[in-house]
Amino acid sequence: MVKINNLSIEFKGELIFKDFSLEIGRGEKIAISGKSGKGKSTLLNLLAGFIPDFSGDVFIDNIRLERVNIGEIRSLIAWLPQDTSLNFDTVSDLFYAPFDFAENKKNIPGKNEISEIFKAFELDEILMSKSTKEISGGQKQRVILASCMLLKKPLVLLDEPTSALDDNIKEKVTDYILSRKDITVLAATHDAYWISNSDKEIKL
User: Fold this and answer.
1) How would you class 13 by CB atoms within 10 Å of its CB: exposed for 0-12, middle for 13-18, buried for 19 or more?
2) Could you list the residue range(s) of the whole structural domain that residue 61 is in?
3) Half-sphere exposure of 21 (CA within 13 A, CB side)
4) 68 exposure class (CB count in 10 Å sphere: 0-12, 13-18, 19+)
5) H or E element, residue 47
């Protein structure tokens, strides 16, 4: 699903990656670990097409990552950023935002799908009518994760997906996501439970 050959990225004179290579098979669940500043978020941002300047070869689903096909690449990806302080008034707006894009309209979830994943993530559906200012950081993170899952993309990029969750909820969310056979997951994380339940850990 992902193939990186001899990747090098330099930012403000600092070499973040040098001759880095990685292969991720379809359906694999990969945890990227390492201290802050080692390039975990940079790697996810690269795959999502947010870092145009790099050397080496990057392929996603056998499509070469280049400026001209960023749209095609992104149509394959669901992405959870580390910063979830997104500017939406209501929880419903936050949840449905990714489905506003033309590419995703066909995947707008039905009521049963939403009910199922909200139950799995221990979210009350009444949250949909609330302001984003009324819910906790952990609830917001789970709402965005639920939206990511329902986009039905083959590649899911998650940046610290359980950072705002308590231990009980964290394990339930982790188990749900990592048990999905139909998606490839690449997560930047410090979470020991997520790492131990992934197929592979890559330390940067």
Assistant:
1) exposed
2) 2-203
3) 3
4) exposed
5) helix 40-47
> Alpha-carbon distance 25 to 109, whole Å?
27
At 33, which CATH number? Answer: 3.40.50.300
User: CA 44 to CA 103: how far, in whole Å?
Assistant: 21
pLDDT along the chain (204 residues), means of 10: 96 90 97 90 94 94 94 94 80 95 93 96 96 93 96 97 93 96 96 96 94
Q: Look at residue 37 in the predicted model and tell me its pLDDT.
A: 79
Q: What is the pLDDT of residues 102-159, one digit of tens each?
A: 899 999 999 999 999 999 999 999 999 999 999 999 999 999 999 999 999 999 999 9
Domains identified in the chain, total number:
1
Burial of 94 (0-12, 13-18, 19+ CB in 10 A): buried
SS3 label, residue 100: helix
